[in-house]
Each structure stands twice: as C-alpha cells, then as structure tokens.
Amino acid sequence: MKRGPRIVTEQQQLLTFTRRAMVLGGAQFAMGTVLAGRMAWLSVAENERYKLMAEDNRVQLILIPPRRGWLIDRQGKPMAINRTDFRVDIIPDQLQDEERVLAELGRLLALPEEEMQRIRDDLKDAAGFRPVPVAEKIDYERFAAVSVRQSELPGVAPARGYTRYYPAGAAVGHLIGYVGVASAKDYEKNKDPLLITPGFKIGKEGLEKTMEPVLRGKPGAKRSEVTARGKIVRDLDTRSDEPGGTLRLSVDAGLQAYAARRIGTNSGSVVVMDCHTGDLLCMASMPSYDPNSFSDGIGHSEYAMLRANDHLPLLNKTLQGLYPPGSTVKPAVALALLRAGITPEQSVVCTGRYRLGNRYFHCHKRGGHGHVDMRRAIHQSCDVYFYHYSQQIGIDAIATMMRNLGLGAEFPLPVASQRYGTVPDTAWKQRRFKTAWATYDTVNATIGQGYMLSNPLQLAVMSARIASGRMLMPRLLARSPLKAGEPLDIDPEHLEFIRSAMSDVVNGPGTAGRSRLPLADVQMAGKTGTAQVRNITAAERARGGKFGGEGVPWKYRDHALFIGFAPVENPRYAAAVVIEHGIGGSAVAAPIARDVLTYLYDPAKALATLDKMEEGWGGNIETRMAREAAEWGNRDKPAPASAEAAAPPATTASAPAANAAAPAGRAAASAGNAAAAGNEPLETD
Questions:
Q1: Which of 248, 273, 293 is the last residue of a domain?
Q2: Which stretches are tagged as biased composition: Low complexity (predicted)?
Q3: What backbone torsions phi and psi does residue 666 show, to the nearest 5 degrees?
Q4: Within a domain: residue 512?
Q5: 599-606 long-range CB contacts below 8 Å, 24 or more apart?
Q6: For tag attachment on the chain, is the N or C end more exposed, with fewer CB atoms within 10 Å?
Q7: CB 559 within 8 A of CB 324
C-alpha cells in the first residue's frame, strides 16, 4: 500500500528547532567555558610565567663574570691577580653579515691580518653559544669606538671586565697554570650559562684548574631595558659579583722566580722543601710557557713555537718528568746496608771496574778509588762499593728503604697529575716482564740506573726525610693541615752517619767541593748524581770515544742531578735539582742548588751572582723568550744578502748549540727502558 506524503506540523518543526538550538547552545557554552577556563589559567596560574616572558622581551639580563680569587705566596705576595681591562667578543648566534662586521672591527681595532684570520677560524669551529674573543686588553678609545657602533654591529659584544695576570710570567707557568675560555665540552657537562658569558674564563692547567671551585666566585647580573630590536634604552639595576677566594700557597714567590732564572738556558727542575713543615717553597720547571700568553689567547705561531721546542716547555718536569736518579740514591742504599748489618768500616778495593760473571761494570773513576769504606763510597760516589755490597742484601731490602724515603710515591697534592716512576724489586720485574730478577739488575739499580725512575719532587722528599729523620709529606697549600710526620723507621745513628757523609760530599773531599755555600756560618750537605740516558754496550766502550758528555748530541748527554740540605747541623731546607742532559751533577746541578739555597739566606748575594750569569746567557727569561719568538717568526724569511748582515750582534749570547737536539722529556722518559744489563756509569758524578 502506497503511503501518502508526510505531513509536518508546526508543533513538530518547533520541537526540532528547539533541540538543535539546545545542542548548538550547549556546544557554544562548552566552548565558552573552555575559553574562559583557558583565559583564567593563563591569567592566574600562568601569570608569573608570561609576566617573566614579557619582562624578558623588555628587559635584558646580562651575567657579570665574577672576579677570580688571587693566588698569593706564603708571605702574601701576589702570584696570580686580576687587572681591569676592556675587551670585545663576538656571539656567533647573533652575528649578521659576518664579512662586513669583521671588516669594520678590523678597522676600528686596528687588528693585524693574523688576528683576523684567527677570528675567522674560531668562528668556523665555535658553537653558536660560545663567544669568540676578538680583542682583549684594548685601550679605552678603541673600546669606546666599538661601543658607540654596537647597534650597527650585531653579534659584537664589547665589555669591561678583568683579565688574569701573572707577575712572574714563565717562572710560575707549570706551577700555577693559566685560565682560558670554557670549551663546548665544559658547557655540555652542566649547561651553566656563566660558561658562555663573554669574558668569563676557567682554569685550564695547574692550580688554576685544580682549585677552580675555590677561585671561581659567584657571578653578578645587570638588568637593562631594551627595544624590540635589542637596543639598550637604560640600565635598571645591577647586582655585584662575589669574588673567588684567595688561595695562599706554601711557595716563596721570590725563591720560585730565582730558581727558574737560575736554571738558565738549561732544561730541568728545582724543588726546595721545608724540613720542619714539609712546605714546598719552590717547584720550578724550565723552560716554561708564559701563562699570560695563554690567558690572553695565545697565537698559532707562538703555540707552534712551544710545541716545536725540543726542551718541551709544555711539560711540567717537576711532576711529570721521569729520570734515572743516578748516584743520588746512594745514601738510601747505604741506609739499607746499615739496616742489614753492613758496618761503615767494612771496605772493598775499587780498581775502576767490577766483574760480574763475564761482564765488567765500571766505576766513574777509571783508575779506581782504592780501599773504600761506606763514608768514602758516599762522598767519592764509588760505584764498585755499592756493586759489591748490594748483592749481599738484595734488591728487596734496597727497594723497601727507597720507598720509605719517598721514591715511587704519589703525594696528596692539588695537582692534576704526577708520574711516580719506578722503584723495581723482584716482584715488580716478575709482574712486568714475567721473568726473574737477575744479579745485574741489582747492580744497576743500586746506582740509580736500569729500571729506576723518579721525578724531582720525589728526590726532594727523599732529601728532606734523610735530613729531618721524619716521614715528611710535601704541602703546597698553606691552609692544608701540617703533616710533619712520624719519625722514620730508621736508626737515628744511621741517619746521622749518612748526613755526615753527605756533608763530606760538599764540605770535605767529596765530588761537590766547588759548591760550598758562600756563607760563613751555613754549610750544605748533598749528593751528586750523573745518569746516562742510553745503553752503552761493551763493544762501544771497547772502541772508546765519547758517550754522554761534550761532543755528543744533546739528547744523548747524561742527566745532571743533585740532592742536598742545609744547614748540616740542624737541617731546615732540602733541595733537589735535575738538569736534563746537563752532563755532570757536580759541574751543573750542584752549583744551582748552592745558589738557590744561598738565596734563602742572602738574597742580595745570590741575585748579584745571577745577574752576571744572565748577561752571558743573553738576558733574563723574558728577554730570551722574546728573542726566540722573533727568531721563530723570521724563520721563513729569506736570509740577508751579506755575511755582515747575517751575523748576530757581538753583544748577544746565544743559547748552547746543543739546544737543537731531540726532546728532553722523551729522552728522560725512555731512559729507564735501556737494557738493564748494559747500563754502565760514565766518568763524572
């Protein structure tokens, strides 16, 4: 059945409209409610957030790098301070039209092309957040010229701040270190915005690095009102920074500078230690770098010069240089002999060589010393005596005594690293080489050769412990607790005998008689040492010739060493001197120790002696370094046309010709790797 058309009444239409209106109204109400809730959330709950965002658009917050804490010596003399300076940096993220901006900066700051190239290279390698230094320590006129054009130079950030300054320069390079701009790796560790603040620097080496938490301080802040384009309208307020803490060292700044100068054109280290407290009064390592150059941003040319120097000025020889200690260990060996029951009166006949199996081990005195007891063996440094008696007690007893005196130890000092060398014994060789200890190993070790390696700090500690009779520990920070140490587990009479024999080395018929202190009432005791740096075979010795002295390349010359203390009666200061490839301990190292200890009693006399020496060396440290830099910069320039023009001025003294040899540090580090059976001492001690 077919349905007819549906009839919609007015009432039905009204009902349908009402339902639709209710649905739409409900939807509108819900949307309105959501919008109102969102507006309420933004205006109430999120009020602080958007208020801060709006404030950030209007106000620019700039961190003020904190002033770094000073480093001062034991008497309060500054060793690392801050100086006000003006600087200009570039923020890569904000840099626009790079070539135009760089060209304008070069013109305003009068930058040389080398510096402009350095800036371009740094910009290529820099992360966007890391500021690139353009110029530091500029005068106010150039700073103002950039500041007034800052709106025209997007990304350029002129600032007034502080720069690190080291009054003693290279003399404290390895000890104090230097500061530099934080790297991207530094920033990734904790995302501290201070690390990317222009002008802020962190410790990179030495005490500047290890004592960073003490020296850093807390940053300040400056609020400035800016336009939408970033132009400063006015400064609102400033919160001052909190400077870092002052760090007092145990070091004597005057002695440190003197020792560094006294090393002269040599490569080596001088360490002086207080026998009463363990305070390290001096830790000089030369040649060194000028920390002011690194803190200011060292140039590529200067850094290349340092890396190319065969004397390794970037290596801290005091802590990281390892050397065969040579005859400086003989007092320790003598103490081991005394403990084992060998009396000072027992003697041997030295003919100049000692037969062991089918090999001969030579004494430094070819003709021999004749009858030698323990006292004479020490002050004449007779090798044959120690060859003979060391075999009776064995290497383990000797190694125990050496470790008791500080050799092979790593000391609790605020330094990044220290190499502790080797004090070999039977267990060490078995563990290292999977082979048994041999008698010839003992013969070599007993004169500080073979596998024996130590650093200059360890030698100074050994000297201080023999002098004081206590387990002294070195101290570098004046605030750290004193560790004067318990008495050594050594018979006091044995120590007194060794100290007396070491006095004879300098004040009696010993090997360092020319190094007596030029003081009426103070005497120095000590022990010289000469350590060869390469294996000398019997065939080479049979052929004759020169092995480790004058006439051979610098890198093959013997190291010169000396340990000592003063005064003899009541020791107050102990010292160790190591001169790389210095040939003879008595000729080179002992005189340096004499002059350094003289400075502690009579600075004027010591300085007068040094001034005369520096005239012959071509000037003081700064003068010589400046000349080396100039020569390095001119190395690729064509030679003068005439011989007269090529000749140096008659008044200029050049460094020793041996300075052109291979790296000292590498030779020193490899010295202990020579075959133990072949290390034979040479003519001097």
A1: 248
A2: 639-685
A3: -70, -40
A4: yes
A5: 599/254, 599/255, 599/258, 599/259, 600/255, 600/272, 600/281, 600/573, 601/517, 601/519, 601/522, 602/519, 603/254, 603/258, 605/518, 606/258
A6: N
A7: yes
Query: What's the rounded Cα separation, in Å, for the pair 561 and 605?
Result: 24
Residues 237 and 283 in one domain: no
pLDDT at 322: 97
Instruction: Give the tokens for residue 656.
Output: 């020793």
Give the total residue count for the chain.
685
- 208-247 burial string, b = 16+ CB within 10 Å, else e? bbbbbebbbbebbeeebeeeeeeeeeeeeeeeebebbbeb
180/289 same-domain check: no
Q: What SS3 state is found at 672?
A: helix
Cα angle 83, 84, 87 (rounded to 5 degrees) comes to 115
Residues 269 and 286 placed together within one structural domain of the fold: yes
CATH code of residue 481: 3.40.710.10
Give the closest residue to 672 by CA, choosing from 310, 268, 431, 322.
322
Tell me whether residue 144 is in a domain.
Answer: no
Domain that holds residue 381: 253-410+421-678
Report whether 284 contacts 270 (CB < 8 A).
yes
Structure confidence at residue 644 as a pLDDT band (50, 70, 90): very low
What are the structure tokens assigned to 379, written together? 């002050």
Q: Which domain CATH number covers 178?
A: 3.90.1310.10
Does residue 6 fall inside a structural domain?
Answer: no
Output the CA torsion 68→70→71→74 (10° steps).
-160
Extract long-range pairs of 26-35: CB within 8 Å, 24+ residues apart.
none
Flag whether 146 is in a domain: no
Q: Is the pLDDT of residue 15 over 80?
A: no
Sequence-ordered list of residues with C-beta below 8 angstroms from that of 305, at least 6 positions apart, any chain: 628, 629, 632
What was the pLDDT predicted at 654? Answer: 33
On the question of pLDDT at 537 being above 80, the answer is: no
pLDDT at 409 over 90: yes
More confident residue, 59 or 427: 427
**What is the Cα–Cα distance from 574 to 584, expressed in whole angstroms?**
20
Please state the rounded mean pLDDT for residues 606-618.
Answer: 96
Does residue 229 sit in the same domain as residue 371?
A: no
Helix, strand, or coil (residue 574)? strand
Three-state secondary structure along 181-225? ECCHHHHHHHCCHHHHCCCCEEECCHHHHHCHHHHCCECEEEEEE
Examine the domain organization and report whether 220 and 357 are in the same domain: no
Q: How far is CA 265 from the centre of its chain?
A: 19
Q: Are residues 231 and 277 in the same domain?
A: no
* Domain count of the fold of the chain: 2
In this model, does residue 233 exceed pLDDT 70? no
Sorting pLDDT into bands at 50, 70 and 90, what band is 398? very high
- Residue the block writes with tokens 């009779």: 469
| pLDDT for residue 183 | 85
Task: Please state, in angstroms and rounded to a whole number, the distance separating the CA atoms of residues 593 and 561.
Answer: 10
Tokens of residue 45, six digits:
């709950």
Q: Which residues of 155-185 are buried (b: 16+ CB within 10 A; e: fewer)?
A: bbbbbebbbbbbebbbbbbbbbbbbbbbeee
- Tell me the three state secondary structure of residue 435: coil
Same domain, 432 and 497: yes
Who contacts 532 (Cβ-Cβ below 8 Å, separation ≥6)?
324, 449, 547, 548, 558, 559, 671, 674, 679, 680, 681, 682
Do 388 and 453 lie in one domain? The reply is yes
Q: What backbone phi and psi angles, to 5 degrees, belong to 69?
A: -65, 150
Cα 193 to Cα 220: distance, rounded to the nearest angstrom: 12
Average pLDDT, the chain: 86
